[in-house]
Structures are given as structure tokens and as C-alpha cells.
Amino acid sequence: MSPNRVIQNCNDSLNIMHINVQCLRNKCLELESIAHAHDYDVLCINEHWLRKEEIEVLSIQGYRVVTSFCRSSKIHGGVCILIKNSYKCTPLNLLGLSKEVNFEVVGLKYHNIEIVSIYRSPSGDFDIFMEQLLHMLETLNFRKLIIITGDFNVKFNTKDEQAHQLCNIFLTFGLKQSVFENTRMQSCLDNIFTNIPDFSVTVFDTYFSDHNAVGFTLGITSHKDCSGNNGRITYRPITNIGLFRMYNILEYVNWEFISDERIDSETKFDMFVKLFSETIVTTFPLKCRLATSTSREVNWFTDSLKQLRSTLQLCSDMLKSNSSLVTKEMLRNVKLRYKNELSKAKKMTNDKFIKKTLKIR
């Protein structure tokens, strides 16, 4: 699909992010910048660690909390779902099913889609979790599109018996696993189950949690093209981290076919283009964003912050590839600098807004 083609913005076109944030209290700016950078419509948050009174005043620019569960007797944990301010939705009546540590759940209904977010603590009782999960699944309307996100704390994609049981119960209700990459170190603990056949999934590092985030985009290829201003645009951004991955892939390509005299020049050219095109598709994945947006622009996220985040991404990727050019201490320093610069930029923007408001009065 051409980067300039516009896709109709129908009810079943939605960008969702799931993340185990491990305390949202001091990570609001990082979450806000990620949400707007990827144009997510819905944010499913696990382990926010907030009290009820803190959730009620949570401020993520452009989003509102639709539904949340907070622990009252234990510390940490908790789940919540945020959605863009311009989107109309209703909470699902699931809070009565939550049991601290064992099964924490919230959900919402948006048009013909029901979205659920679940957290299960690794110290929880798995039998209680499965019992509550079954009760929850029986309350959903399976004539609608179902998306269930969560940190289930079982090891998917292995011979783990609990993971096997969990996948089986979801399959019983026609819900299939969508995440097959590791989301925390060497394990896939987070996943999304759905009855939607047409979707794409991206697992990525947010740099503010030891869990990777999961981006879930549904229905992109099923919509007809249109030229209206309320559509979505697909594009392929060229990023520093993508360039680094591309160089790594191309470095290990066997280029001997170029000098092989048994292959004619036209075939060589076709082989080169095919190889290069496949590398670009792999290293620079397609993104989707609204052609126009009614939400407020995050004008505090400056070009220098974007560059610093790209540097952070590059350092993290190089460290993961065992590059000798980056150390853990260097990565920590870049993370700290990025966090400090985010805070400064947001404060400066708020100060300017207050001064401007006072002048108008």
C-alpha cells in the first residue's frame, strides 16, 4: 500500500497499546509521549500501583481514564484503561470479578468492540485466576469483536502447563493468541487474545519498564480506500533504530551472486531489489496515524526530545546486540537525561500556557 493512501476510519479501526508499566506515578510523561508518538487510541495499563484517589486525578494529555481497579489491602498491582478524549465508550461491568493479586480486570465497550485488560500477579493462585477468567469470559458478548490484553505471568510459547491451560480456555471461546515475542527478558508474559482475524502486533521497548509494550492495530487492511479527512494514513518512518537493524542485516548478506558470471545482469538486479526490499519491510515497519486529529497536539515534545529518544532507542538496541560501543551505564545515563529533559519541556510548556492565560485575563 502506498504511504500516501488514506484508509477509511471505521468503527473497527483502532490502535491499542498494552503495557505493564510497573508504577505509573512517576512515568506519566514517558507514557504520554509514547502514546502520542504512535497515535494510540486506547491504553491498557497493568500494575499502575496507584490508589483510587490518585487514579481519579491522573492526567495524560489527550486521554481520560474510562475504568480502573486499585488494590485496597495489598500494595502495587492494579489495572486501568484510558481512551482518547474524543472517543465515546462505556465501561464493562467487570469490577465485581476482580480479586486482588489473583485476578484484576477492567473493560470497556467501544462501538462493536469489547476491550478487556487483565493482570495476574506471579504470586497469585492460578486456580482462582482460571475460575474468575471463566466467569469473566461468560459475561462478554461474543457477537462483538473481543480484545483481551494482559500480563498473565505465564510463559507463553514454551511447554509451561499454565500457559497451555490458559491458551486452551481462550480457544474454547474462539480467542487466539497474538503475541509470540518475548515481553520481559527471555519470556513472553504479556499477550493479547482476540477473535479478530485482521490485525497487526508490534512488541517494543518503552525504556521505562522492564516489560516491553505491545501495540495492537486491528482492521487496517480490511478497509476500503477513501480520500476523506477523517481517515488514517499508513507510512513507513525511517528511524535510527531501523537503520541500525538494516545495517546489521545487510552486513551478513551473501553478496557473491553479484560477481557470479552464470547469472545474467537482469536477474542479479531483481535479486538485489528483492533482498533490499525485504530488508526495508523488516526493519522499517508500517505505521498508521489519523490524517487529522481532534486531540490536542503534544507541542511540548520538541525535535530535540525526538532526537534524544532516537538516541535512547539506538543505544538500547546496540546493547542488546552485544555491541562493545555501548555499556549499561551509558544506557542508564541516556535514560536519565531523557527523563529529565521530558520533565523540563513539559514544565516550560505549562509555564508558557499559564502566562498566556494570565495575559488574556
TrEMBL record:
Domain Endonuclease/exonuclease/phosphatase: start-end pairs: 113-214
Q: Which Gene3D superfamilies has this protein been placed in?
A: Endonuclease/exonuclease/phosphatase
**One MF term in GO for this entry?**
catalytic activity
Sorted alphabetically, which InterPro entries does this protein's record hold? Answer: Endo/exonu/phosph_ase_sf (IPR036691), Endo/exonuclease/phosphatase (IPR005135)
Its protein name is Endonuclease/exonuclease/phosphatase domain-containing protein
Taxonomy, superkingdom: Eukaryota
